[in-house]
């Protein structure tokens, strides 16, 4: 039981540390909707703070919390864009391929 609490505490500490991190790809539709819909209630968390699977759980949890607090939940399109964005920049997202240097021919 203590080990589980310590794990939860570590996740929350990672999220708190990630709150002030600038968002990657801030002009994308997903980032903009994430900023508008999520920052109204809490500081934004860096997408790289959680894995893709953890973001699925977190967004589902927040949907229930929004309903509980009588806040309009995410539409299907908002949910899709936010999750796509968060998963693309999640801790376990594949690294973007490096731009290759032009070859001298």
Describe the structure.
The protein is an all-alpha fold. It has helices at 2-18, 29-38, 52-68, 76-88. The radius of gyration is 16 Å and the shape is globular.
Which bin fits the share of residues in helices?
40-55%
Shape designation: globular
Order of helices and strands: HHHH
Look at the structure and give the mean pLDDT.
Answer: 84
Summarize this, please?
With about 100 residues, this protein is mainly α.
What topology emerges from the helices and strands here?
Layout: H1 2-18, H2 29-38, H3 52-68, H4 76-88
Quick tags:
105 residues, mainly alpha, 4 helices, globular
């Amino acid at each position: 039981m203590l080990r589980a609490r310590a794990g939860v505490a570590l996740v929350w500490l990672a999220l708190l540390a990630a709150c002030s991190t600038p968002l990657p790809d801030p002009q994308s539709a997903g980032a903009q909707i994430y900023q508008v819909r999520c920052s109204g209630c809490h500081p934004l968390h860096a997408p790289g703070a959680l894995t893709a699977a953890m973001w699925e759980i977190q967004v589902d949890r927040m949907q229930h919390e929004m309903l509980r607090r009588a806040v309009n939940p995410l539409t299907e399109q908002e949910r899709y864009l936010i999750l796509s964005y968060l998963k693309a920049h999640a801790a376990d997202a594949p690294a973007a391929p490096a731009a290759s240097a032009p070859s001298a021919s």
